[in-house]
Fold this protein.
Amino acid sequence: IDVRDAGEMHIYRGGIKLATLKSGRLQDQLAYSGLEFLPISDILARGTDALRPRIQRPSAEASRESADFEWTALLNTILCIVNGVKEHGHGGTVLLIAPGAADTLPVRMKFHIDDQNAVVTDCFVDFVNARHRLTSARNTYAATGDGREGVSHLKNATFVAEEDLADAADLAARLSAVDGALVLRADLAVEGFGAEIVLDAAQSIDAYEVTGHPLRNGNWPKVDSESFGMRHRSAVRCIAAADEAAAFVVSQDGIVTFMWKQDGRLLLKRNVNTSNPNMVGA
C-alpha cells in the first residue's frame, strides 16, 4: 500500500496496481491498450535503439522477450510522464520526438536541458538492467536451485529502481507547468521545456479524428482544428510540420488528446486512455 497524501492510497500486488482510494472513493484501474500507440512504434523503436548500448540483456532469455519488455517499459514511462501532467492539474503538451529529429520541430525553446542531465534516461536504464539481472538470477535458480537469496535481493533492487524511475518521470512532468510544451525524446531525454511553437497561427491544417483502430486506414472524419483551444491548435500545427514526432495534449480537466502523422495526414484521437497500472507511481 502506497500512501501518497491524506486520503489517497494506491494498492499494489507486486508491481501491479490493483486500485486507488481517493477521498474515500475506490477507483477502478483500467490499463491502457498498447494498440492505441502502435502508430508511434517507429518513434519508440528509435528510442530503444538509442538505449540498447547501455542495456545488458539476460543471456538465457529470448531476445524477443527482452525487447518486448524494453518497448513496453519505455511506453509505460512516457505515459507515466503524461499522467503526471494530468495529476498536477495544470494541463500541458508533451511533444515526443525520435532521437535526432529535434531540428525538424518548429519550436523556440525557452529552457534547454543538456544530455548530461538525462535523469529519466539514466533511471530507465537502471530499472531495465535491474529487471534483466533479476531475470538471469531467476533462470539460474530454476535450473540449479542455487541463489534463492540473490533472487530476493534483486527483486527488491528492481522495485526500488522502478520507484526511482517513477520519481524521475514525475519530475519531468512537473516541467510542463511552465508555459509552453515539454519536448521529450523517445530515449527519455528531455530536450527542453517551455517550448513555443513558431508557426503561422493563421495557417489552416487538415486534421482527421480517429474513432476506431488507429492503424486501420479508415475514412476518418475531418475536424476543424480551429475549433480547438490554443494548446491543441499549436500541437496540430507542430506535428503536421515535424518529422518523427507525436504529441500528447492534456487539458486542464485531464482529457488527453493523442496526435500523430500517418500516410501524410494529421490524425488525432481524443480522450485516449493512458491509465498505467503496471508502473509504480503511475
